[in-house]
Amino acid sequence: MASNGNGSVALNGKGGRNGLAKIETHKKHINGICHDDSGPTVKAQTIDELHFLQKKRSAPTTPIERTQTPFATLSEEQRQRQQLNSISASLASLTRESGPKVVKGDPDKKSETQRVVHHDHHIAPTIVVSDSALKFTHVLYNLSPAELYEQAIKYEKGSFITSTGALATLSGAKTGRSPRDKRVVKDHHTENELWWGKGSPNIEMDEHTFMVNRERAVDYLNSLDKVFVNDQFLNWDPENKIKVRIVSARAYHSLFMHNMCIRPNTEELENFGTPDFTIYNAGQFPCNRYTHYMTSSTSIDINLGRREMVILGTQYAGEMKKGLFSVMHYLMPMRHILSLHSGCNIGKDGDVALFFGLSGTGKTTLSTDHNRYLIGDDEHCWSETGVSNIEGGCYAKCIDLSQEKEPDIFNAIRFGTVLENVVFDEHTRQVDYTDKSVTENTRAAYPIEYIPNAMLPCVGPHPKNVILLACDAFGVLPPVSKLNLAQTMYHFISGYTALVAGTEDGIKEPQATFSACFGAAFIMLHPTKYAAMLAEKMQKHGATGWLVNTGWSGGSYGYGSRIKLPYTRKIIDAIHSGSLLNANYKKTEIFGLEIPTEVEGVPSKILEPVNMWSDKKAYKETLLKLAGLFKKNFETFTNYKIGKDSKLTEEIVAAGPTF
Ligand SMILES: Nc1ncnc2c1ncn2[C@@H]1O[C@H](COP(=O)(O)OP(=O)(O)OP(=O)(O)O)[C@@H](O)[C@H]1O
Ligand SMILES: O=C([O-])CC(=O)C(=O)O
Ligand SMILES: [Ca+2]
Ligand SMILES: [Mn+2]
Fold it and tell me: By residue range, what is the domain housing residue 287?
């Protein structure tokens, strides 16, 4: 008996494993009529023919470089050649040959690897000076989820199909982003355009060092048997669509981006042309620590001038998503469009809400709402015409995920979805969402249409409500407060949340985090630029600001408990419906927040934090402590002016806690 590696077992001709007699089936011919109920036999003569019959040929799906010749008049062969030339150009070493020999298809499937690029005659012939130029680079171009599943399961350790059909993967040593390893090229343009220095996420590198890392990544990718290439879009606003190309080494990365970026249709792909931005993801390969500026073996490098990003030394897929988000935080403001780290949904009456907040505060959870249409869960643009999602998918936290509390997200975890770093039963493949053995940051990446009430296309009119989410582990911020414009700006610039570091080893002090614009890791310009745009837009379109604490109540972490999700949902419902706007309010001490006395479906007692603390003295001390942290954080912003109006700036500074 031989095992074929797939777990099935070859049987001998005499019968099954237990030596049972072969079961005979007799064809019964009565009155010349065949009563055999088995179907007709296959038309193939050989097993290869049978396999050939199984697959229908797909339409060509690679883009072409823009030429004078209209696409339609090209022969099939010319098309194929031009399509592959475009990819060859992306993968070119800039110091040696013009571009690698690119072939399409899986190197393991010989019949599919015939289409070699013969370099165009009008390109000067290059002399092959390296071994890498002699070999072929096989390109797996815009594969479908099914094809990517097969690639992942066959070639990537740690890839499995879960009981609901999702692809479970491991991201390797890194299970979260590495913001300290992010570098941005400082050149003549970006030197003046971008925000540099203290507090800025843009750690500088020079052009030359970027090229060193780029070459390292390209050489690594070309040394492989095959690379994955995704050509996709960012931004649902048709006027401001960005074409991105992602070159990566793992099926996991290709499927992740397939889900997270906007998927082009066949026609859009044929007319794709040259990408606006290219990612080289060589995440399995480290950067060289002898290289200037490198402080670890991980480096995520953005070069806005070259419109390229290089990833070395981390396989965490979120780097690609958030790297592109950083790029959008540069490109969009240049077009007077505001980019936002926010979720977004729209009600049946067309009322749009934005949900800002740092990681884990509830953007995905609260924007995914069965009673409303989901525009997006994480990255948006606000232009003159309204809001648009940047992405084509969602990226949900999975820790403690339950079908009961978050049914739409739970049910989206099915065939096509990438499930990162979760733990599952080795036999049933049932996922245990409570298990943090690999990481607490377990994630699911799925196309937005996996949410039943997704808004397609993912655009909407100007927002009516701007909800700032904070997970306050100190337990002193009210579950909801209504903000005036100055307060909204104050809290937007502060970007507060508080989480608890290592949860395993006993009770820890909550850690306050301040991240300007609720996304300091992704912004490229000074935070006040985005804040000014937000203020102007909110003013112009009459949006109301809200602060919602999705964190603790009745004491800090370890003493109180997290506000129940159903209560937060009721609060959000009251904001959407407009009923909260007309509630009775009272002002809190220190933070000066307007809190409602009643919200339908929520016990009134919880609306005022002090009520929930048994130790009132501890409450006051904790409140003052947090207020002090806010004040200290805001010091760096007091010298900046927001907008043309110095009146608003003064109001913003005054909108913080007073004590
Ligand atoms: N009252 C609450 N409100 C919102 N979320 C809650 C609440 N209580 C518990 N949670 C949990 O908090 C987490 C919120 O995470 P979510 O995925 O929405 O974060 P996010 O803001 O989208 O972050 P990221 O930008 O990292 O994706 C979820 O796991 C959710 O179940
Ligand atoms: O980017 C990630 O890894 C997850 C995310 O959405 C965030 O941290 O804001
Ligand atoms: Ca999210
Ligand atoms: Mn996010």
Answer: 160-336
Ligand 2 neighbour 359 (Cβ under 6 A): yes
Q: How far is CA 312 from CA 23, 109, 169, 282, 451, in A?
A: 59, 29, 19, 5, 33
Last residue of a domain, one of 336, 352, 383: 336
Structure tokens belonging to residue 284? 């399995």
Per-residue pLDDT, 110: 61
Residues 252, 153: Cα–Cα separation, whole Å? 10
The answer to whether residues 312 and 201 belong to one domain is yes
Of 235, 305, 652, whose CA–CA distance to 485 is shortest? 652
**Which residues are near ligand 4, the ion (C-beta closer than 5 Å)?**
378
pLDDT at 35: 62
DSSP for 522-537 reads T--S-HHHHHHHHHHH
Q: Is residue 341 part of a domain?
A: no
Ligand 2 touching residue 80 (CB < 6 A): no
**Cβ(369)–Cβ(345) below 8 Å:** yes
What is the spatial distance between Cα 269 and Cα 439, in angstroms, rounded to a whole number?
A: 37
Ligand 1 atom closest to the Cα of residue 563 is 1
Active-site annotation, residues: 177, 322, 341, 359, 363-364, 378, 443
ipTM: 0.98
Residue entry with tokens 């929520």: 602
Q: Output the six-digit token pair for 393.
A: 């998918």
Q: Is 395 in the pocket of ligand 2 (CB under 6 A)?
A: yes
- Tell how strand 203-205 and strand 182-185 pair up: parallel
Neighbours of 595 (CB within 10 A): 22
Closest residue by CA, ligand 1 atom 17: 397
Whether 274 is in a domain gets the answer yes
Q: pTM, whole model, 2 decimals?
A: 0.90
Tell me, yes or no, whether 415 lies in a domain.
no
**Cβ neighbours for 344, distance < 8 A, ≥ 6 positions apart:** 352, 353, 354, 355, 367, 374, 375, 376, 380, 387, 389, 460, 463
Query: Dmax over Cα atoms in the chain, in whole Å?
Result: 102
Closest ligand 2 atom to Cα of 519: 9
> Average pLDDT by consecutive 10-residue portion of the chain (659 residues)?
40 49 60 66 87 77 52 67 82 79 83 48 56 83 97 97 98 95 97 94 97 96 95 98 98 98 94 94 96 95 98 98 98 98 98 97 97 98 98 98 98 98 98 96 98 98 98 97 97 94 62 96 96 97 98 94 98 98 97 98 98 97 98 91 83 95
Write out the two tokens for 47.
């097993």
CA distance 654 to 257: 43
Q: Are residues 91 and 166 in the same domain?
A: no
Answer yes or no: do 200 and 79 share one domain: no
pLDDT for residue 121: 43
The per-residue pLDDT for 16 is: 43
**What residues are in contact with ligand 1 under a 6 Å CB criterion?**
357, 359-366, 378, 395-397, 399, 406, 550, 562-563, 565, 568
Rounded to whole angstroms, the Cα distance separating 496 from 483 reads 15
CA 568 to ligand 1: nearest atom? 1
Pairing of strands 511-514, 496-499: antiparallel
Look at ligand 1, atom 26, and give the residue with the nearest C-alpha. Answer: 359
- Please choose from 364, 477, 480 the residue to mutate so as to test ligand 1's pocket, defined by most ligand atoms within 8 A of CB: 364
